[in-house]
Specification:
The complex is a heterodimer. Chain A is an alpha/beta fold. Chain A has seven helices and ten strands. A six-stranded mixed sheet of chain A has the order 6-7-8-3-9-10, with helices on both faces. Chain A is globular, with a radius of gyration of 17 Å. By secondary structure, chain B is an alpha+beta fold. In chain B, strand 2 and strand 3 form a beta hairpin. Classes of the chains: A alpha/beta, B alpha+beta. At the A-B interface, helix 1, helix 2 and helix 3 of A face helix 9, helix 17, helix 18 and helix 20 of B.
């Protein structure tokens, strides 16, 4: 069953002479539990694709269906609420809230929903990302790798339908990079978590089940690496 | 251009919004200093003009200029807080840049230089503009003052008129330019020194200048309960940017304290004025008052008191002549200065009189009660007799007393009236029997009588040879009436003898207007000063809040991308402005009340009035503070709305 369906997605920036076609009719679907890597050179349109799937941007045409919901039919507020409950986003630059502690940052999507913090779940996630002892620290008191682990924790807290990671290791040394990838793979294997990782790093991409290569806004290759 | 200069220049160009607000702060500071010293010079010139060069003592000037000095001190203090905050934020924003140029070999001195150059560049534009604005303010202020004082001056002779003229005081400009430049340099130097000290590594890594500790950002569970998670985030942000917001809170607080102080100063001024004016409500008051002559016997005892008298006939003639003037109503009341007493035991007081005495803890010490005997012009006497229900020719007891207690007027009926006679005794022991035919109470008693009576026992008699006589006149045209009366008044009074008398025609309407316009002038100056100072503070409030919101755009985007709605974001910013306002109100209102109380103590020392809480001013402050912070946050947030989440993530990632 397809958890994510991307249908003929187009995104055009600018007007007249300065027109840039970032995405030019991209279609693919992802099944539950799949680990997909999207690779491409810079400017190929992979980040645009990521933002469109994450619902932080809207396409010129085409649609995205996540878990049966056609996401662009919602207004801004509905989309925001959909995001906090169904999608986990991981950025290259962590994007943590500097005034919140590590555990508060992890709980952020739940706090925004005014839901009771699930202590057991939080404890489990802290153990998984290996930050039990740093839960009360602010992001500025953590290393880059630790901060990225917090943002992975934040992505996992709500058992999202889909985790989107945009160059999650782009800002990390190789050891921290592998730790993050292991963490993502673990969630994929253990919780059957659907995972979409954007990267330009071959070694990262090769850890995925399936690699989609994007070039000039179109899908160049879509190959299954392992079953 | 030297690199340090260029970096400073670039910083000003890049962050235009803050540059403009900081510039505005400098312009206002210079303008206020120029205006304050300009006004001081105008004031000094006006005094010299008024009393002549010869009589001006140095300490007049000292007083005026030291007042200017005190005001300047307040201005400079507020300005340093405001402008240094702007530079601190500017330096903080550029930590990364400082780190980079430090790592390629810039010295501490060079870093400090770039920040100071910023100050110099801003001063180069701000100070001349400020002086121009200040001179303009001085011209406007002088004109307003002269316009307001027209009434007062019309009342004075030409010699005594107060006229302000515009004085182009180069010393004032020099002082304000110097003052403003020093302010800017100090403001720029403080953060520059700090920025220069930071290690290159920390600066590059963008380590926040204030190292945050999670403990310091801890918030109470109550906040989440009351304001939700957005409220908690809002409070944490305020705690993080405590230093920036401290300046905001301080400048809002100062403005509030000054505003509350100024408004209660105004209230006291007008309350005191009203208390004085309230004594006799008339436009023009003409008085005749005989002098006293004492004849002593050999033992030094008073044998006889001699007075010049005005009899009913003479007084009535003057009253009639006054009434010939169009649109005029006259109330004439005369009285006896010879003291008559009545034995206390022969009087029967009401229970409300006793109550009044005991509630004020007053104890009757004398056994004798003074009696006031008054006579009223024929027309008004007839009316009073009608009200009392007695025929013309009766003696009417004014059974009404009004005293001040706790700053309020208390009115009550002092005596039990039963058609009795008063057994009066004069100073020489002579016993006079005064039968009372009727009484007047409460609203039946005209104000002119209440104001003329000084004792509890007042009797109006149909005719008397009065030792003093007062004509209280209401007129449509008080000024012409004054001239008219002046032309005949003295001629119609009884001829003078060796006893002597005093007369006076007092144009209360004109004096009243004049004093009020003088007070209004003072209040305009006071509010003008407070308003300008508030503007300086406002430049800081706006630049702090908008810079703060702008520098957190990344945070906002993150919150939105993990699912905060735009409504939630707005909510968070609203709560930030509310918390910030509450904080400044917590400081501002008690301090403002304290200042207004001190003002009350120093001003109302001689006139007895109860303290009044400046409630209106406080409410105005609360409304204004919420409006200012809310509008600023809202405006900044509004600019975020157009921001595409994706663009923002890019912009932030790209740095």
């Amino acid at each position: 069953m397809a958890i994510l369906q991307v249908n003929n997605l187009k995104k055009i920036y600018g007007k007249g002479d300065t027109i840039v076609t970032a995405l030019d009719g991209v279609s693919f679907s992802v099944a539950k539990g799949e680990f997909v890597a999207i690779i491409g050179a810079s400017g190929s349109g992979k980040s645009t694709l990521m933002h469109l799937i994450g619902g932080v941007d809207r396409p010129t045409s085409g649609n995205v269906v996540i878990d049966g919901n056609e996401i662009y039919k919602s207004n801004e507020s509905e989309l925001a609420i959909f995001r906090r409950r169904n999608i986990g986003l991981i950025y290259q630059f962590y994007n943590l809230i500097p005034t919140l502690t590590a555990e508060e940052n992890i709980m952020l999507p739940r706090l925004l929903d005014n839901r009771k913090p699930d202590e057991a779940k939080l404890k489990h996630i802290l153990e998984t990302i290996g930050l039990e002892n740093r839960a009360k620290h602010l992001p500025s008191e953590l290393s880059g790798g630790q901060q990225q682990r917090v943002s992975v924790g934040r992505a996992l807290i709500n058992d999202p339908v889909l985790i989107l990671a945009d160059e999650p290791t782009g800002n990390l040394d190789s050891k921290s990079s592998q730790e993050i990838m292991d963490l993502l793979k673990l969630s994929n294997k253990r919780f059957n978590q659907t995972l979409l990782v954007i990267t330009h790093d071959e070694s990262i991409a090769l850890q995925a089940d399936r690699i989609i290569t994007i070039s000039d806004g179109q899908i160049l290759r879509d190959e299954v690496v392992r079953q | 251009m030297k690199l340090t200069k260029k970096l400073a220049y670039n910083q000003l160009i890049t962050n235009k919004r803050r540059t403009i607000w900081t510039l505005l702060g400098i312009i206002l500071t210079t303008a206020m200093l120029t205006a304050v010293f300009g006004f001081a010079s105008s004031g000094a010139a006006a005094i010299t003009d008024l009393i002549g060069d010869m009589y001006v003592r140095d300490n007049y000037y000292t007083t005026i200029y030291s007042m200017g000095g005190v005001l300047s001190f307040v201005i400079v203090m507020v300005s340093i807080i405001v402008i240094s905050n702007a530079f601190r934020v500017s330096a903080g924003e550029r930590l990364n840049q400082f780190g980079i140029i430090k790592s390629v070999g810039a010295t501490k001195k060079q870093i400090a230089q770039t920040v100071c150059y910023e100050g110099i560049l801003l001063s180069a534009v701000g100070i001349p503009s400020g002086i121009a604005v200040g001179l303009l303010l001085q011209i406007i202020g002088v004109n307003i003052a002269n316009y307001m004082l027209t009434g007062l001056n019309a009342f004075q002779t030409d010699d005594a008129a107060i006229v302000f003229s515009f004085v182009f005081a180069w010393q004032a400009m020099l002082i304000s330019a110097f003052g403003a430049f020093t302010t800017v340099l100090i403001s720029a130097w403080l953060p520059a020194r700090k920025a220069a000290k930071i290690a290159a590594v920390d600066a590059i890594r963008g380590v926040n200048e204030v190292k945050m500790k999670a403990k310091r950002l801890r918030t109470s569970w109550l906040v989440r309960k009351l304001f939700g998670f957005e409220g908690e985030l809002a409070l944490k942000s305020l705690k993080r940017s405590r230093r920036s917001f401290r300046a905001t809170v301080v400048s809002l607080t100062i403005s509030m304290v000054l505003f509350i102080g100024a408004s209660s100063f105004g209230t006291q001024l007008f309350r005191m004025a009203n208390l004085v004016f309230a004594l006799i409500e008339a436009d023009v008051i003409a008085t005749f008052e005989s002098s006293q002559q004492f004849i002593f016997d050999d033992d030094g005892e008073v044998l006889e008191q001699r007075y010049l008298t005005i009899n009913t006939f003479e007084a009535e003639n003057i009253t009639a002549k006054m009434r010939e003037f169009q649109g005029t109503s006259v109330f004439g009341v005369g009285g006896n200065s010879v003291r008559y007493n009545v034995l206390r035991e022969t009087l029967q007081f009401t229970s409300s009189f006793d109550e009044h005495m005991s509630s004020n803890e007053w104890v009757m010490e004398t056994e004798q009660f003074p009696v006031t005997i008054l006579t009223v012009d024929a027309e008004n006497y007839a009316e009073l007799a009608r009200r009392a229900g007695v025929p013309i020719g009766s003696n009417i007891l004014i059974n009404h007393a009004r005293t001040q207690s706790d700053g309020n007027w208390a009115e009550f009926v002092p005596l039990v009236f039963s058609g009795q006679s008063l057994q009066m005794q004069s100073y020489d022991g002579e016993i006079v029997n005064l039968p009372l035919h009727g009484e007047l109470r409460g609203l039946d008693v005209p104000n002119e009588i209440i104001h003329s009576s000084v004792s509890y026992v007042v009797v109006i008699v149909p005719e008397a040879d009065a030792h003093f006589y007062i004509w209280a006149v209401e007129s449509d045209d008080p000024n012409s009436f004054e001239t008219y009366t002046d032309s005949f008044f003295n001629d119609m009074l009884p001829p003078d003898s060796d006893i002597g008398f005093r007369t006076n025609i007092f144009n209360q309407a004109a004096e009243d207007n004049a004093v009020r316009s003088l007070f209004h002038t003072i209040m305009i100056a006071v509010y003008g000063f407070v308003g300008m100072l508030t503007l300086i503070g406002l430049t800081n409030v706006i630049s702090t809040i908008s810079t703060n919101v702008r520098s957190r755009s990344r945070e906002f985007v993150t919150l939105q991308s993990v699912g905060m709605t735009y409504g939630g974001l707005k909510n968070m910013l609203n709560l930030e402005s509310i918390l910030c306002s509450i904080k400044s109100l917590i400081y501002g209102i008690p301090l403002g009340i304290a200042v207004s109380y001190l003002m009350y103590l120093s001003m109302v020392g001689s006139v007895w009035l109860p303290y009044e809480l400046p409630l209106v001013a406080i409410i105005q402050c609360v409304v204004a503070v919420f409006a200012i912070t809310w509008l600023t946050m809202r405006f900044s947030a509004y600019r975020l709305r157009g921001q595409n989440i994706v663009e923002s993530i890019r912009a932030v990632d790209g740095r």
